[in-house]
Batch of 3 targets.
Target 1
Amino acid sequence: MKYCKKCKRFFKDEESVCKHCNKPLEKITDKNIPVYLLSSGGFELQRIKTALEDSGIPCSTTPKKRNISADIVTGCDYAEYDLLVPYAAYKKAYEVCIGIGAIKEGDVQIIDDNSADFHDDEEIEEMTPARRTAVRIFSAFLFIIVVALVIFATDYVVKLVQGLF
């Protein structure tokens, strides 16, 4: 097995570059190297960590993206974290996560790991930057039209009410 030192994910021996961060892969030599298990946050993350610790599996977390300001405002940690376990305990940790429902057995493979799929029936496609910009412009235009209609409707209602007096 090979793994990426940066993002801690592991891959088949045939691969040479991490598909997540494009860093070169290295051979796993130490059974205690922390490897990526799954991504989660909030209560679900605490539930998974507790289940792993109850099973005697050490684990650690690394934030995917820092949301310090959101934590200060809300008082809750809603950030997503990558859950890491030692390579030697990966299979047991994977089975524990399947047992508690954190990973669906058919959705995630041990080597080609994907985050939990929240949309079972839908296929989600990524927007291209050009399409995202077009959607934003169209949304802004629609917002302006809605605001204008509300103002015109309010003026019309006010003139009707003034006409009654």
Target 2
Amino acid sequence: MKEVRIIGVPEHFNLPWHLAIEEGAFKDRGIDLQWTDIPEGTGRMCQMLENKEADIAIILTEGIVKSITEGNPVKIAQEYIATPLRWGIHVSAQSAYKHIAELQKTKAAISRFGSGSHLMAYVHAQNEGWDTQALAFEVIHNLEGAVDSLTAGNADYFMWEHFTTKPLVDQGIFRRLGDCPTPWPCFVIAVNNDFSSKHAPILKHILEVINLYTSDFKSIPSIDRTLANAYGQQLEDIKEWLAITRWSQQQLPEEVLRTVQEKLSSLELISKKLDTAAILL
């Protein structure tokens, strides 16, 4: 039995992995897949891959592309979610902010530098026509840190996945002023180069299993109720999320990779663009 360390955010996107693990689908192929939730998100996961603390990560596309261009010895094995991520733009429910335009020249809470919340703050600012060089940040590590920071007034707004933060909006902790979807498919499966070179057949088996599970995921009876219960979501929110989300069983298209690198380069978030072969497995 080969132990494989896999990491991802504790969000509804990753339920197919947990179902496959619980049902022994990986063990049937001689793989002991050890899942660890990483609430801090993509920035922390990039670091863990680089430090060989994990073999595989389910990670945001823009974050891992940036990290690879900076020398992280990782490649993208395939696309995982083929649809954009809907980033909610949140403020404290007690704040005076009512419109996105009022957030110009304020401070954004981010989980860490290089994370999705950091990179998407730039994408959003560019969309709004703001000066991206004037952005200011407060590192808050995770969702709990964002609640504390916005409530205390240490940061003014926070971008995080729309449905993950919806319960905080419902509870009157956050107010959502709008959404900013990613201009590309949001999650990929990234693999440490050392692991992929030494264990290519095992990686192939892992991808085959998860692709079987994601292909049939939406057709599982009452999957919407299972998701709602597992992640503390309202059923109508999960139904809306399922309707706009599509899992992928293919490699990330080269044109998408070009789009990501062009955008990051235009925002001066990466200093160089790499050939496809340096990023895609």
Target 3
Amino acid sequence: MPRPKKCRKVCHLPHTAEFRPVNNRSHKFVVLTVDEYEAVRLIDKEGFSQEQCGEYMQIARTTVQQIYASARYKLALALVDGMAIKISGGDYELCDGKESICGCGGCHRHRN
């Protein structure tokens, strides 16, 4: 029996949940999960290492590697094949705002 999945901590949901190429008339799209989105945001935008990302999301570094690789594959597929990207689903829980310091500095609950 496989081990149950741990929920991944996510700072906030994306402001935009769907991206579509201008000339896309197809109904094909790639689904990027919220935890994949968060891994890409933390590593590529915030400059976290995979180890720091794992600490923040409260998962193992190897799990971060798997999530990040999956996200990059989906992003490449969408860019190369001109498909839309939809962000939804995944195993995650939102930041509860009870931490004294947000690991990424991007938590909206700590900015206000």
